């Protein structure tokens, strides 16, 4: 089924380099497929290192002019972009849903969420303050200023094709950086539409450049940026394994890095928790985007005394979820991004069952009717999970909830922190003294306290340990795109 857009010109297939829409240098292309049907919905440029280098040249040439623009001018351009994004919410949501699979209601929410970062950093652009340092002698003036780091390469994932790329581009542009971007190979259409709207907002040529590539070409495209000293920063959201490769390969040119990587989020329910609220918080945190989020709870710990009651309430809620194509009004869980993702989910569930887990609901691929493609998996709850299971050590990235029993706070804190990852954690308790004690002890960058929805444009987002470093959003988010410069003027006596 063809994409039906109110603005058909938002469906782009070419790269955008130096203010021009252009095909790959070698003329190659690849299909973008709808995970709900498996059908190709668009054909986009399959770029090479030459395309990536052309984007770098354009961004480098535009940098001096863009950095010298008054912050208020950059802010006004971002505000116009923000207005256009909101004006075209429905078209952008359709693109998100068709190429990524999430239900339209969630896709609309992603547009609003992503746009909020553009609005936020439009305001932050004019608040990039410096400092005056008290001097030890009368003959000097000592000042601190902040400057844009330079050309930024943004590499983004498929699970939030709009939010993840604007969360990087908006602060970079606000800071005065220019950008080269590569969206995920599975979901380039939303990113291309966003760039078309940025062009419409009046962004100067070369300030924002985007190249698309297939999975086979991605290392060549990104490699060109890693090797190029003109690219001064890499910002990446994706797997820890890839993040480590980027850190290693950017070392020769000592690029700055912002890495938002994998997680293994614990969700803890204490016996004094409001169980109904905890179930709803888990549903919001776990089943958004079908569990395909980096902050999705991967290990759910429930205190023994309330384990059975919580499990019963959770299973009833999970069984009520409706699975289907994202463009169906009643769908709450869409398809996974591709069959490989479902293979991993299936492997995790089968491993857990073989190691003693009990199947409380779900546990199989779906087929027949609207779900008759290999990309659907039933929302699943597993009981009696243990740390020997593969799903305890590796993100499942799907609609699977494993329940672990625990006896006391000490035991569950040790279990929650027993992972190399540290992105998000959640817990439910009505004990005020426990709340602050536990919040400090959990080794993550984000903590949800009696809350399952964490992200906001005004809050810093990022992890610790092998979940990466750097922060996106908030007043701290601009600093990742700026360098601090110290100025000392003498001979004033």
From TrEMBL:
It comes from Litchfieldella anticariensis (strain DSM 16096 / CECT 5854 / CIP 108499 / LMG 22089 / FP35). The keyword Oxidoreductase applies. This is Succinate-semialdehyde dehdyrogenase. It comes from the Bacteria. GO terms for biological process: gamma-aminobutyric acid catabolic process. Keywords: Oxidoreductase. Transmembrane segments: none annotated. The active site is at residue 260. PROSITE patterns: ALDEHYDE_DEHYDR_GLU. GO terms for molecular function: succinate-semialdehyde dehydrogenase (NAD+) activity. Residues 28-486 form the Aldehyde dehydrogenase domain. The keyword Oxidoreductase applies. Its EC number is 1.2.1.16. It is an enzyme of class 1 (oxidoreductase). Belongs to the aldehyde dehydrogenase family.
